[in-house]
Design a protein that fits this description.
With about 280 residues, this protein is α+β, with helices and mostly antiparallel strands. Among the domains are: about 90 residues, Immunoglobulin-like (Sandwich), CATH 2.60.40; about 90 residues, Immunoglobulin-like (Sandwich). About 25% of the residues lie in helices and about 40% in strands. The strands form three sheets. Strands 2, 4, 5, 7, 8, 10, 13 and 14 form an eight-stranded mixed sheet that branches. β15 and β16 form a beta hairpin. The longest helix has 28 residues. It is elongated.
Length: about 280
């Protein structure tokens, strides 16, 4: 091989080896706030997130903020030092925040700031009423970051029974800040009770309960049976009343219908007739 060709090949190989190093040297540098943990107290202080573009080798265009992969409106600015403020932080404000810088001749650069909070269960069923043999569904949803680990258990007085998917009738489905418990073919003797969902992350945990009531197959007939029982009782009362009233109201055929005339009255009339004849 010609010496010049060997030299050109060596230069090309060296350039390829140095390219990642040169690219790393030319990448923008961003100074960002540390992670923040929100207090469970409702009167917690405002939180300020800050990013500063300290180094950029290509012309800088603008910056904006994102939360959980979605752009936050009204946060675009041309300043290198960008700030996002949470005035009244709650668990719902926790998440993965990102400051993004855009350039005319280079890819976007970003830095991530985690805002963490204990889970806060914002929705759940207070009670579930079903008939035996039917299926029941209970759920819980929360806010807070990182996404919690969900568990379900049944409360039996002061003891607990953990629930999993191994029984064939209980099925748990978890998705980030949402969990669902389904119970198939409800048993009226073993399934009624208090069920608890528990959300846990690195900051803390929160739990809520749902009361499951299971009614008998005859439950839909209870209103009809109640009316039928009232009718039967009313008929019995009427029959008893009529039987007690009848002896006093029936007239004996042997008794005279009207008042009987006495002998003294008849004698008095006979005397009057005799007196008239003598006159």
């Amino acid at each position: 091989m010609h010496p010049n060709a060997v030299m050109l090949l060596a230069v090309a190989l060296l350039g390829n080896l140095m390219l990642p190093f040169i690219s790393a040297q030319n990448e923008p540098k961003i100074s960002a706030s540390d992670q923040t943990i929100l207090s469970a107290d409702s009167s917690s202080k405002p939180v300020t997130l800050q990013c500063n573009l300290t180094t950029a080798h290509t012309p800088y265009r603008e910056s904006f903020w994102m939360k959980n992969g979605k752009e936050i409106s009204n946060t675009r600015t041309e300043q290198r030092n960008t700030v996002y403020r949470i005035t009244k932080p709650r668990a719902d404000d926790s998440g993965e925040y990102m400051c993004v810088y855009t350039f005319d001749m280079a890819p976007n650069a970003n830095a991530t700031i985690e805002v963490k909070a204990k889970p806060d269960i914002t929705g759940h069923k207070r009670s579930e009423n079903k008939n035996e043999g039917e299926n029941a569904m209970m759920y819980c949803k929360s806010v807070g970051y990182p996404h919690p680990t969900w568990t379900w258990r049944k409360v039996d007085g002061t003891s607990y029974t953990d629930i999993d998917n191994s029984t064939g009738r209980f099925f748990i489905t978890n998705r980030d800040n949402y969990t669902e418990l389904n119970i198939l073919n409800l048993d009226i003797t073993t399934d009624p009770g208090i069920y608890e969902c528990n959300a846990t992350n690195v900051i803390g945990n929160t739990a809520e309960t749902t009361i499951l009531r299971v009614r008998s197959h005859l439950a839909p007939l209870w209103p009809f049976l109640g009316v039928l029982a009232e009718i039967i009782i009313l008929v019995v009362i009427i029959v008893v009343y009529e039987k007690r009233k009848r002896p006093d109201d029936i007239i004996d055929d042997d008794e005279p219908v009207g008042p009987m005339k006495t002998n003294s009255t008849n004698n008095h009339k006979d005397k009057n007739i005799r007196q008239r004849n003598t006159k």
